[in-house]
Amino acid sequence: MKIAVLPGDGIGKEIVAQAMRVLQALGESFEYEWADVGGAAYESAGHPLPEATLKLAKEADAILFGAVGDWKYDTLERALRPEQAILGLRKNLGLFANFRPAICYEELVGASSLKPELIAGLDILIVRELTGDIYFGQPRGRRSSPDGAFAGAEEAFDTMRYSRPEIERIAHVAFQAARKRGNKVTSVDKANVLETFQFWKDVVTEVHAAHYADVTLEHMYVDNAAMQLVKAPKKFDVVVTGNMFGDILSDEASMLTGSIGMLPSASLNDRKQGLYEPSHGSAPDIAGKGVANPLATILSAAMMLRFSLDRAEQADRIEAAVKMVLASGLRTPDIWSEGTTKVGTEAMGDAVVAALA
Ligand code: IPM
Ligand code: MG
């Protein structure tokens, strides 16, 4: 088994270093190969996703990814910005199924901005389609407006589109995930306005009727879903939605838990090859200070063991170790509260490694 390790920018290097220590403590004989990605790769090779990095990622069974991005690249042309690395990896590897769990850890209930009773026990899984929609739809660009009230004016446009097979395959992923959890899927759309999402709703309904009558399916407009997520988040089990809505709702859901520093994610293709990364970003404001929370990356490594490397028991060990560490009261600053012990990135890694043993 070969793992591509792509730490990226900002806090990426620090948090991936801790996840690597945890992986190495498992005693497995995986092969690891490191490469630059994002801003780091732009600096070293002139491109956020250099050929060598892409080749490594394609050959690997799994990719452990840190984070990319830094304000200092905001003025670069779009094709050279760090974010293009992650979009390029998703597209080139066909990583269409993005799993973003939003779990509220018992010990961290107080860290949420919502009332404890609303989020205690929260366990939502957002299944976001990751390689289609307005993110990748062609055509896109700038032009002189061809018609309408502003004909002749400069305009920019993107294209929202989904094909039947794209919707079908993500629907299958969501229904199958639901069967292993609360057996309910909420499909989020904007069928009241958008042709693309009326089609989405129709296809999800067909897949459900043909294969998953045992799973409860509900449909919800995206604006209502945004509202329900803060009003009664525990009513959700699996949420399946398109790339754009999933981007927004998954940030909202992760923040509900009060612990964005705790949330892992997985992006899989149809060969079980996957990219595993924390749900949070590169946090350049705290980079290099040794205070970043490595737990989301450590938990992403656990997802990697479970989904791509066929080592579910090792994933269980890591998740149990993280729970033990939280129960012992150790907290990085992002999840610290009165009465707990504040520690840095490395000490948190030490504690997980110790708990594994
Ligand atoms: C995410 C991020 C990315 C996205 C960016 C960095 C391209 O926000 O993974 O949610 O929009 O998908
Ligand atoms: Mg996002």
Notes on the structure:
The chain is an alpha/beta fold. It has 12 helices and 14 strands. The chain folds into 2 domains: 1-96 and 269-357, Isopropylmalate Dehydrogenase (3-Layer(aba) Sandwich); 97-133 and 162-263, 3-Layer(aba) Sandwich (Isopropylmalate Dehydrogenase). The strands form 3 sheets. Strands 2-1-3-12-11-4-5-10-8-9 form a 10-stranded mixed sheet, with helices on both faces. The longest helix is centred in the middle third of the chain and has 17 residues, at 195-211. The model has no long low-confidence stretch (mean pLDDT 96). The site of 3-isopropylmalic acid has 4 residues, from helix 4.
**What is the highest CATH level, the class of the largest domain?**
Alpha Beta
Number of helices: 12
- How many strand units? 14
Distance between the termini: 23 Å
- The coarse overall form would be globular
Structural class: alpha/beta
Bound molecules: 3-isopropylmalic acid, magnesium ion
Fourth-level CATH superfamily of the largest domain: Isopropylmalate Dehydrogenase
Classify the helix fraction into a percent range: 25-40%
Looking at the overall shape, the CATH architecture of the largest domain is 3-Layer(aba) Sandwich
The third-level CATH topology of the largest domain is: Isopropylmalate Dehydrogenase
